[in-house]
# Entry
Amino acid sequence: MPLLDIQKLTAGYNDVVIVDQVDARVNAGDLVVVVGPNGSGKSTLVKGLLGLARQFSGKTYFDQQDITRLEPWQAVKVGIGYVPQTNNVFTNLMVSENLEMGAFCRMDKKAIKSDMDEIYEQFPELARRKKARAETLSGGERQLLAIARSMMSRPRMLFLDEPLAFLSPKASALVMNRLLEIQAAGTSMLMIEQNTKIALQNATYAYVLNEGRCVMEGKGPELWEDKSLRQRFLGLDKEEVVTDRN
# Structure
């Protein structure tokens, strides 16, 4: 049984359907990515699962528990962490305070302190700046903080909405490497991502959305090697196509 099972999800805003009849699954320990052109409904898919967009129909199960129309505050309780694309840190708080906020639902202070120490070991970039306000962090550091803060709730699965958006290639590689380390330690992930190359090359499995519907699915690296897919749905530019043929 998959850890996350999305069945015929239809979601959108007000009365407008953005995601139409999408099926997707995430097995325990997997990194599953959802890619597609701008406006294809990728972010709406995750927001629909979290009650941030309207669900018109469909069912969603997490560890065989029906979580259809889950409220955002309930996600943490069932074991889901969420890293939104924007406004994902408290800019006026220090790095350490942001991490503490990630554990707001926990009462085990000793374990929280232990988890923070582990976070600083895994994210040395944050350890060096634990007393700095989040507003002073670089884009990559801020994304690392958003991910680390979400991990403070000890989630079994992370929902990530374009964690590599607006980052330099160097920062994107750093954030991606940290996510792969978290996955290797046992946390499953559903990641929405516009950086299709790095996403597909590292994904256990992937879904391609176009105009709100799933048009392809398969192992991430295999989808990346499908040149027709990349040109039709993923916006591969001419220079990349030429380079790929050499």
Notes: The chain is about 40% helix and 25% strand. The radius of gyration is 18 Å. The mean pLDDT is 91. The chain has one domain: 4-245.
